[in-house]
């Protein structure tokens, strides 16, 4: 998916990128199946004519029964073909749409993805997409076949008596007005369901993920009760969604039934003035009643698609998120120098980085310090292009990040953040994540340099241990050292470090520091520092406040200048 998915099709087939040809075959078989269904009715209409003709041959009733049976067999076969083609095409297309959407999410600014409520994207790609898939696979084919059958019945009615056919037809568009009305009634209710569902899913993720903190700090279970309330609200909203379109659907049925009554009354009138034969009247009334049932059914299928519309609007909202612009002519950086040139950035109009400039020579360590909310993490994230700057530029090795392609940026920058993510694969594969082709020896060498080799070897399956936080108990410091090994192996020239604030035990901390100093050697490092003693040897310290650098220099220079840094240093010494 190259850009935002803006080309719209009402049922969202455009999201798949291309229409699977089997879809058209499915529609054709479905329509032909409906024609076969209409055969007995056509024979019924033809019965009076057949009966008028001189017999001698087969009885018309037998003929009708034989052709009717053949129509039934043929119709069943065609419907089976239609179902097969409809299912296989719609399943394929919905799966394609899901994959394209997942690719699209991967191209969004990472910062945007992380800002979604916990679980919202996975819920959309799994549960909501499944609902959409069910409707597409089960209802779509029925809608098309469901249209053919009443059209054929109406054509027969037209042949029998064009006046009755036109009278009934006049009521159909009026009834159809109720379908868009039902969609409008549903839209507001569906938006509420979607919002409540997102809150409930996020609540569950939060309560499960934070179970330990909640056990100690929320003895009255207030967070869990809040989740209960979201689920209550969700079930109320879901019920309201079912009920909301009821007035529209009832009106649809009412108008159609009034149409049938009108046909009956006029038929009676035309019978009275002799312009309608009694036999034709009987057949026409049969047809109108069956036709009315088929049109009512068709309306229900259409109404059923409303659920797809509701889910589709959420899917489209995600599909229309603008991805990070990708450059066509990628430029390769030379060296690892980082330059911030008058960089500004705001979240939703709220300025967080204001005209910041700095030069971080290749192979040096620069520390970012400052009070909480000063913009340190945001600046570090901008170097990793989790977002794009809104003014100014960030260059690495002389190249504006926006001129680097994804692969180059990935090769150039490593990030080791506080929250380490280890994936459910072997520890060896976790370490070689950034360089999948690395040999086992290289993986082990990186783990040794990161002071985690021995701990891994102590596990029963060693490097082949599949990481599972429940079964493989690695401490915070150990997980961090696995992440350091990962970064060592990837060997990118630029390293963004978010120094851990979580207290890890002293032994582990000493090992982490040792591993970090090996990782930092020879690279351009930007480290977000919380404990100043860890960065007192940094080549450059940038003191940030309100998105700007208010002091810069080495540790001795900043101490001598007796400014904010010196005060922060004093404060931390006192602890
Ligand atoms: N994804 C986001 N959406 C909106 N605002 C954000 C987002 N991330 C951070 N902010 C806001 O931007 C400001 C700077 O945050 P940032 O995390 O960069 O500061 P920081 O100096 O790293 O703070 P800390 O030391 O506490 O991590 C804060 O006011 C924060 O609330």
Automatic annotation (TrEMBL):
Name the residues that span the membrane. 23-49, 61-83, 139-159, 166-183, 249-267, 279-303
GO MF terms held by the record:
ABC-type transporter activity; ATP binding; ATP hydrolysis activity; ATPase-coupled lipid transmembrane transporter activity
Q: What is its main location?
A: membrane
Q: Would the keyword Magnesium be found if you checked this record's keyword annotation? A: no
SMART domains, per this entry?
Answer: AAA
Q: Where in the cell is it found?
A: Cell membrane
Q: Which PANTHER family match?
A: ABC TRANSPORTER, ATP-BINDING TRANSMEMBRANE PROTEIN (PTHR24221:SF397), ATP-BINDING CASSETTE SUB-FAMILY B (PTHR24221)
What residues does the ABC transporter domain cover? Answer: 338-571
Occurrences of domain ABC transmembrane type-1 (ranges): 24-305
Q: How does it sit in the membrane?
A: Multi-pass membrane protein
Record keyword Transmembrane present: yes
Gene Ontology cellular-component terms listed: plasma membrane
Q: Pfam families of this UniProt entry?
A: ABC_membrane (PF00664), ABC_tran (PF00005)
Keywords attached to this Swiss-Prot or TrEMBL record, sorted alphabetically, are:
ATP-binding, Cell membrane, Membrane, Nucleotide-binding, Transmembrane, Transmembrane helix, Transport
Official protein name in the record: ATP-binding cassette, subfamily B
């Amino acid at each position: 998916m190259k850009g935002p998915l803006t080309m719209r099709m009402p049922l969202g087939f455009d999201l798949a990128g291309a229409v699977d040809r089997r879809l058209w075959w499915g529609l054709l078989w479905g329509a032909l199946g409906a024609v076969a269904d209409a055969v007995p009715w056509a024979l019924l209409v033809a019965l009076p004519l057949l009966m008028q003709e001189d017999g001698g041959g087969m009885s018309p009733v037998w003929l009708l029964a034989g052709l009717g049976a053949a129509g039934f067999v043929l119709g069943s076969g065609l419907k089976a073909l239609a179902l097969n083609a409809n299912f296989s095409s719609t399943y394929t297309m919905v799966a394609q749409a899901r994959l394209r959407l997942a690719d699209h999410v991967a191209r969004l600014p990472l910062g945007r993805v992380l800002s979604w409520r916990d679980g919202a994207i996975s819920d959309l790609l799994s549960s909501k997409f499944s609902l959409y898939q069910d409707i597409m696979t089960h209802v779509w084919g029925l809608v098309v076949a469901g249209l053919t059958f009443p059209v054929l019945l109406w054509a027969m009615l037209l042949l029998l008596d064009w006046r009755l056919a036109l009278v009934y037809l006049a009521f159909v568009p009026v009834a159809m007005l109720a379908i868009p009305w039902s969609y409008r009634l549903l839209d507001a209710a569906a938006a509420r369901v979607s919002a409540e569902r997102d809150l409930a899913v996020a609540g569950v993720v939060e309560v499960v993920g934070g179970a330990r903190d909640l056990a100690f700090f929320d003895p009255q279970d207030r967070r869990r009760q809040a989740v209960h309330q979201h689920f209550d609200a969700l079930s109320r909203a879901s019920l309201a969604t079912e009920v909301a379109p009821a007035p529209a659907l009832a009106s649809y049925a009412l108008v159609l039934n009034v149409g049938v009554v009108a046909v009956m009354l006029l038929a009676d009138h035309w019978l009275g003035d002799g312009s309608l034969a009694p036999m034709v009247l009987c057949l026409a009334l049969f047809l109108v009643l069956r036709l009315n049932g088929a049109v009512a059914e068709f309306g229900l299928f259409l109404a059923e698609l409303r659920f797809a519309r509701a889910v589709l609007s959420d899917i489209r909202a995600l599909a229309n998120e603008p991805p990070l612009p990708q450059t066509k002519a990628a430029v390769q950086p030379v060296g690892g120098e980082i330059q911030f040139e008058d960089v500004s950035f705001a979240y939703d109009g709220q300025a967080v980085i204001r005209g910041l400039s700095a030069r971080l020579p290749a192979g040096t360590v620069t520390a970012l310090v400052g009070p909480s909310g000063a913009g340190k993490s945001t600046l570090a994230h901008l170097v990793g292009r989790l977002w794009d700057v809104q003014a100014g530029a960030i260059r690495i090795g002389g190249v504006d990040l926006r001129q680097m392609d994804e692969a180059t940026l990935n090769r150039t920058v490593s990030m080791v953040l506080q929250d380490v993510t280890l994936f459910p694969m072997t520890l060896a594969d976790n370490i070689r994540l950034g360089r999948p082709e690395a040999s086992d020896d290289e993986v082990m060498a990186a783990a040794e340099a990161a002071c985690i080799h021995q701990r891994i070897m102590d596990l029963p399956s060693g490097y082949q241990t599949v990481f599972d936080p429940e079964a493989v108990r690695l401490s915070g410091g150990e997980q961090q050292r696995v992440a350091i090994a990962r970064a060592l192996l990837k060997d990118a020239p630029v390293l963004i470090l978010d120094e851990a604030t979580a207290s890890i035990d002293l032994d582990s901390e000493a090992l982490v520091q040792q591993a970090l100093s090996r990782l930092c050697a020879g690279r351009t490092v930007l480290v977000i520092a919380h404990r100043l003693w860890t960065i007192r040897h940094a080549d450059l310290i940038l003191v940030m406040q309100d998105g700007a650098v208010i002091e810069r220099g080495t540790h001795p220079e900043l101490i001598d200048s007796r400014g904010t840094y010196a005060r922060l240093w004093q404060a931390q010494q006192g602890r």
